[in-house]
Amino acid sequence: MSYISGMNYSTKIKEDLDLLQTIEKQQYKAQCRDHVRFLRLLKSGQCSTQTEAAKRVNLSLRQAQRVWKTYQEKGLETLLQPRKATYFGKLSTTQISHLRRFLLDDQAQTLADIQAYLAGSLGVEYTLGGVFDLCKRLKIKPKTGRPVHIEQAPGAIEIFKKSLLR
Q1: Which residue range or ranges hold the Winged helix-turn helix domain (predicted)?
Q2: pLDDT band at 86 (very low <50, low <70, confident <90, very high)
């Protein structure tokens, strides 16, 4: 394995130390900066193994192995490109706005109601757990009414408020 002591990283890493240090300082993404620092530590000889360099840069051994493999196969340019998030959810922004409008109209009482709306109106299938996660991601909180006494007459509160205004 390449993380075992004895490998001469100074010859395996093509870029010189000054260039690696300059590139490291230019990085605004912490992940890219750590990857370049990992290579620089190996190239300079400050760390003789990938394990040692990974600990200094705060990477796991497996991450360090992936960084080294990527560097060997595709070069430094690939390490400098930050990973992109690939999952944006099933709903588009317009569908999310339709869902929010549906919820603002107080038409949904349960997650099952939201699930039925998503399937019927927007054509997107979600499990109940998926609807829960969606609401959590969109910061949609459950709306619960205040408790009402059993013997309270409907509309009594509005009549009382009107009598106070006179």
Answers
A1: 106-162
A2: low
